[in-house]
Amino acid sequence: MVHQTIQAIIESVEKPTIFITPDYSIEAVNQAYRDTYSIPVILGKSKCYEVSHNSTKPCDQNGEQCPLSSCIQNNKNSSALHIHKTDSGDTYCNILMKPVKNNDGITIGFLEILEKIDFASSYSSDRKLIGKSNAFQELIKMITRSANSDISILLQGETGTGKELAALSIHQASKRSKKPFIEVECTGLNESLFESELFGHEKGAFTGATTSKKGLISMANGGTLFLDEIGDIPLNLQVKLLRFFGNRALSTSW
Fold this sequence. Notes:
Blueprint: H1 2-11, E1 17-20, E2 26-29, H2 31-36, H3 48-53, H4 67-74, E3 78-86, E4 89-101, E5 107-116, E6 120-121, E7 129-130, H5 134-147, E8 153-155, H6 163-173, E9 181-185, H7 191-199, E10 200-201, E11 213-214, H8 216-219, E12 224-228, H9 235-245, E13 250-253
Parallel strand pairs: 6-7, 8-13, 9-12, 12-13
Antiparallel strand pairs: 1-2, 1-5, 3-4, 4-5, 10-11
Helix pairs in contact: 5-6
């Protein structure tokens, strides 16, 4: 009866979700989870690591952090970044593990909710961050945390290190992903041209302004504005930018 109730609950979850016991056995699964993996789930027999990793051992015995182990030890929610073997290949996923308790406060199992990370890949892929190292996985975690907020973000790094791709990844992972991602190359723009591009202008505002022009800030409204090489912006314009830093998502780079 308990598992039937849990099954009904996880079927209402849009993300791939399973209910597992401390021995890693899958006792309930929603359709989204079944659709994610090629290995069939047999309730009461399949182990989570068999389905998601095609492995005979739990994650922590294969060099990965196991959110189930942490959840059992601390009796609190736990999360981990893993590479899962899905129908579409090796895929980065955020795993959230939650203990499930009965009316007496006794933990009867654990809810595992999977969130695919589409902006990163462990193998060659177009317009995605690519890597497998620990440092790379820490970067993914930072991007995910940043994407869940509306703070302004400063990206630092040498030319060619992928700041634009990192900014795009933050945008794609955020709730603004369906809104515009507008990139502004700040290097080489003089003050008058930059102000016109960023803030727009009305017809006749200056010599040569034969039509009105919508500014890039306005075009990016609801989305993300990426100011590449923001350090090249004239100081007086940087003051004007401060007026909207506090209430708009903004990615910048040096």
